[in-house]
């Protein structure tokens, strides 16, 4: 993964509110620092990639319970050296955590949201920050390739509405991202009778 490519991608991204603008500025500054922004050994933190996974009409979202933080979050995690881009890292994490083989990408590989959040110290890991770059994916119901199967049975997943996510106490940045997703997907024009709801680019696992 190239920091220059991510810098260029984020340089074209327009944040949606002042809080996101502040996160974007922090991420851009972090990417321009001399240390490796993707390395877990970086004492300040590292770039992470995550996926806001929604039904194609924006009615529900797939959340995963993070035990260490005791919070409901979108799927995502650390980038790997083998990931060609942050989008590919988010897609890999989404497939690994949910077991879903096929996703739609309604806005393609464009950045959908960004956030910087603090991660508390845990065992040997000191406190640090995650500089998170988020992307929008969709998943339908019914077909086996869209069935969610938790990577870790002790790490529950749940499809919830936006209102249900608020009830679960998701943080303000994730609430913002879910609101944006519902706005984008809910405003998409309906297709002619007899056709399914479009999901943009189709992303199917090759494994």
Order of helices and strands: HHEEEEHEEEEHHE
Report the portion of residues in β strands.
25-35%
**Radius of gyration based on Cα positions:** 17 Å
Widest β-sheet, arrangement of strands = 4-1-7-6
Profile the largest sheet: 4 strands, mixed
Give me the secondary-structure topology.
Layout: H1 3-11, H2 18-31, E1 45-54, E2 61-66, E3 71-73, E4 76-78, H3 86-98, E5 102-105, E6 113-119, E7 128-138, E8 157-160, H4 162-167, H5 172-186, E9 201-204
Task: Provide a descriptive summary of the structure in words.
The protein is α+β, with helices and mostly antiparallel strands and 207 residues long. It has five helices and nine strands. The chain has helices at 3-11, 18-31, 86-98, 162-167, 172-186, and strands at 45-54, 61-66, 71-73, 76-78, 102-105, 113-119, 128-138, 157-160, 201-204. It has a four-stranded mixed beta sheet with strand order 4-1-7-6. Strands 3-2-8 form a three-stranded antiparallel beta sheet. Mean pLDDT is 87; it is low at 190-200.
Give a brief description.
Helices cover 28% and strands 25% of the residues. It is α+β, with helices and mostly antiparallel strands. Strands 4-1-7-6 form a 4-stranded mixed β-sheet. The protein has a 3-stranded antiparallel β-sheet with strand order 3-2-8. Strands 5-9 form a two-stranded antiparallel sheet.
